Amino acid sequence: MFTGIVEELGEITAVETLDDACRFRLRGPVVTEAAKHGDSIAVNGVCLTVVDHEGDEFTADVMAETLNRSSLGALTVGSRVNLERPTAVGARLGGHIVQGHVDGTGEILERTPSEHWEIVRISLPAGLSRYVVEKGSITVDGISLTVVDAGPDSFTVSLIPTTLALTTLGIKQPGDPVNLEVDIVAKYVERLLAAQGGTK
């Protein structure tokens, strides 16, 4: 489990394309400290498994399902990525409960800068808007954010200088894709109510 608090801005150093998957090599000095085979690391909000680890780099395999559901397939050598290690039991939950299981991708629609923050509007895929509520939590490229405004096909978030400086949302522009993970609690509640006949 993750919390959506990005630990560092890493970089893709190699991409190997396979028949139905790909293998990434990523640089991240913070997240590779004490990393070992089988560990989980969130890459732009996608939970990946460490295959190899050498120095400040690690390798992870990405299967077709993940490439189809997320924006990882668009990454190339030199792409910057948000990296986060799983939270430890007993640690502070700085963001919200994040599984690293992407629900879909959105697109940066517009950026509105202000003196001390920036408002970013992001598109919502069909079927996800019901999980996104004003002042609720959403994960964008692995970043735990608070929804400012929730519409039927888009939402906005307000980014503080730290988020702009230390994550991919500081460099992404209109038209760029982002990974979205909605609040898992909302999905469980919906499923439970449906099982009891409360929703259709």
TrEMBL record:
<dbReference type="GO" id="GO:0004746">
    <property type="term" value="F:riboflavin synthase activity"/>
</dbReference>
<comment type="subunit">
    <text>Homotrimer.</text>
</comment>
<comment type="pathway">
    <text>Cofactor biosynthesis; riboflavin biosynthesis; riboflavin from 2-hydroxy-3-oxobutyl phosphate and 5-amino-6-(D-ribitylamino)uracil: step 2/2.</text>
</comment>
<keyword id="KW-0808">Transferase</keyword>
<dbReference type="Pfam" id="PF00677">
    <property type="entry name" value="Lum_binding"/>
</dbReference>
<feature type="repeat" description="Lumazine-binding">
    <location>
        <begin position="97"/>
        <end position="193"/>
    </location>
</feature>
<dbReference type="InterPro" id="IPR001783">
    <property type="entry name" value="Lumazine-bd"/>
</dbReference>
<dbReference type="GO" id="GO:0009231">
    <property type="term" value="P:riboflavin biosynthetic process"/>
</dbReference>
<dbReference type="InterPro" id="IPR017938">
    <property type="entry name" value="Riboflavin_synthase-like_b-brl"/>
</dbReference>
<keyword id="KW-0686">Riboflavin biosynthesis</keyword>
<comment type="function">
    <text>Catalyzes the dismutation of two molecules of 6,7-dimethyl-8-ribityllumazine, resulting in the formation of riboflavin and 5-amino-6-(D-ribitylamino)uracil.</text>
</comment>
<protein>
    <recommendedName>
        <fullName>Riboflavin synthase</fullName>
        <ecNumber>2.5.1.9</ecNumber>
    </recommendedName>
</protein>
<keyword id="KW-0677">Repeat</keyword>
<feature type="domain" description="Lumazine-binding">
    <location>
        <begin position="1"/>
        <end position="96"/>
    </location>
</feature>
<feature type="repeat" description="Lumazine-binding">
    <location>
        <begin position="1"/>
        <end position="96"/>
    </location>
</feature>
<feature type="domain" description="Lumazine-binding">
    <location>
        <begin position="97"/>
        <end position="193"/>
    </location>
</feature>
<dbReference type="InterPro" id="IPR023366">
    <property type="entry name" value="ATP_synth_asu-like_sf"/>
</dbReference>
<dbReference type="InterPro" id="IPR026017">
    <property type="entry name" value="Lumazine-bd_dom"/>
</dbReference>
